[in-house]
Task: inverse folding
């Protein structure tokens, strides 16, 4: 699940978009990378974007993107970058914006919000099933 919140110049309140999906047989860094690609894919104009994530792998790896691209998406040991296609897409999307990464001020705040959103969605689906 990811959350994208942005402010348009002509609006006072931020716009919030939420996306979700299920990834089977994956790990946290790949899930974070997939969420990044999905969220950035929603942006239609060049923007200044701050990405809050507790995925240190995502933050650290993003710094290597220009070098990986210049080296044909291979590491210094000659091996291919893991999740190459996702990183290529992320690099393409990130190149359209001014991106900074940050750790959440309160790491559990984001997780609690997302957990609340998922629980609300599940409850709504259950309530809908009961009505039929």
Result:
């Amino acid at each position: 699940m990811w959350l994208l919140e942005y402010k348009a110049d002509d609006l006072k309140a931020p716009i919030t978009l939420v996306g979700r999906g299920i990834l089977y047989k994956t790990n946290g860094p790949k899930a974070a990378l997939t969420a990044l690609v999905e969220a950035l894919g929603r942006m239609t104009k060049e923007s200044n974007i701050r990405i809050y994530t507790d995925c240190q792998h995502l933050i650290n790896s993003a710094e290597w993107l220009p070098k990986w691209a210049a080296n044909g998406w291979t590491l210094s040991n000659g091996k291919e970058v893991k999740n190459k296609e996702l990183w290529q897409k992320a690099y393409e999307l990130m190149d359209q914006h001014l991106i900074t990464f940050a750790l959440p001020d309160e790491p559990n705040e984001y997780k609690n919000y997302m957990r609340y959103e998922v629980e609300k969605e599940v409850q709504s689906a259950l309530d809908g099933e009961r009505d039929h």
Notes: The helical segments are 28-40, 56-70, 84-94, 107-130.
